[in-house]
């Protein structure tokens, strides 16, 4: 009996061999599909909090809810990426002054959350660089994949769209494969998702430049806008591969010219409207 169990657990023939995404676009499309399906489950009669009531433990219901709400989580992320940057350009403070004791809860919560995330990542065998890349990818997914998943689900509920299944490309050319091995991010296709990523990156870069100018002109701006500057600086650091793809890379994996033009125009337009 024991030998039979071992044979069942470790079969001689591999049952399935999958191909993981090797480009950013493949990853975004895959997560758009996943988040859309999870959100549809949450809005259906099979929602874990409704259908799972008295069927499964509450902790398990809440665990499922984390994944079911991936899609609408994009709205909160968009707020943090866009609104503080626009307010920074205008000089509007969204957080307490750095000299005020009321500022302490904000950095404490953020540092505790990220420290635990890093500890958990390292405990599972990861590296600091891997954790940092994970934060970057999560930002990209929340502002694109999950946003499109939310919009697609809402349109389907309103009867304005039909169900579709986005297929990720499994064929990778030699150049893409080489950049993947070198851990260089791939941007070489035109997509609305890349338009959003590039535009948000440019908006945060313009806000960072505006904040530096404001600090030089008004010394009190540091005390008033310190947390927003730190948040903006964090987003700029996370978007460094995007800036490289927009301005410095010349290979086929760089941002397409149309995406570059779109992002610059819309970021400048948003920054101008925020300032005036």
Automatic annotation (TrEMBL):
Pfam families the record matches = Cellulose_synt
GO MF, any single term: cellulose synthase (UDP-forming) activity
Q: Give the matching InterPro entries.
A: Cellulose_synth (IPR005150)
Q: Report the domain of life of the source organism.
A: Eukaryota
Q: Which UniProt keywords apply?
A: Cell wall biogenesis/degradation, Glycosyltransferase, Membrane, Transferase, Transmembrane, Transmembrane helix
Q: Please verify whether the record's keywords include Ligase.
A: no
List the transmembrane segments: 143-161, 193-212, 224-243, 255-275
Q: Where in the cell is it found?
A: Endomembrane system
- Any keyword Transport? no
GO biological process terms on file: cell wall organization; cellulose biosynthetic process
Signal peptide from the UniProt entry: none
Q: What are the GO cellular component annotations?
A: endomembrane system; membrane
Positions in coiled-coil regions: none
Q: Please classify the protein's predominant subcellular localization into one broad category.
A: membrane
What is this protein's record name?
Answer: Cellulose synthase-like protein
Q: List the source organism.
A: Rubroshorea leprosula
């Amino acid at each position: 009996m024991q030998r039979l169990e071992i044979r069942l657990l470790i079969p001689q023939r591999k049952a399935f061999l999958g191909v993981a995404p090797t480009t950013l676009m493949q990853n975004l499309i895959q997560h758009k599909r996943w988040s859309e399906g999870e959100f549809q489950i949450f809005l259906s009669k099979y929602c874990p909090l409704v259908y799972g009531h008295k069927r499964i433990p509450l902790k398990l219901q809440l665990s499922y809810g984390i994944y079911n709400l991936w899609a609408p989580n994009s709205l909160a992320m968009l707020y943090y990426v866009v609104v503080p940057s626009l307010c920074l350009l205008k000089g509007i403070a969204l957080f307490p002054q750095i000299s005020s004791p009321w500022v302490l809860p904000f950095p404490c919560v953020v540092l505790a959350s990220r420290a635990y995330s890093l500890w958990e990542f390292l405990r599972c065998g990861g590296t600091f660089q891997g954790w940092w890349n994970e934060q970057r990818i999560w930002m990209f997914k929340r502002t694109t994949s999950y946003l499109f998943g939310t919009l697609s689900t809402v349109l389907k509920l309103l009867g304005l769209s039909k169900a579709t299944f986005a297929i990720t490309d499994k064929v990778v050319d030699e150049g893409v494969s080489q950049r993947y091995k070198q851990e260089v991010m791939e941007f070489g296709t035109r997509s609305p998702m890349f338009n959003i990523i590039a535009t948000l990156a440019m908006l945060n870069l313009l806000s960072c430049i505006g904040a530096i100018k404001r600090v030089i002109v008004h010394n009190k701006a540091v005390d008033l806008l310190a947390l927003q500057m730190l948040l903006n600086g964090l987003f700029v650091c996370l978007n460094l591969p995007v800036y490289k793809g927009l301005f410095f890379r010349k290979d086929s994996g760089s941002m397409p010219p149309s995406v570059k033009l779109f992002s610059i125009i819309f970021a400048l337009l948003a920054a101008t409207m925020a300032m005036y």
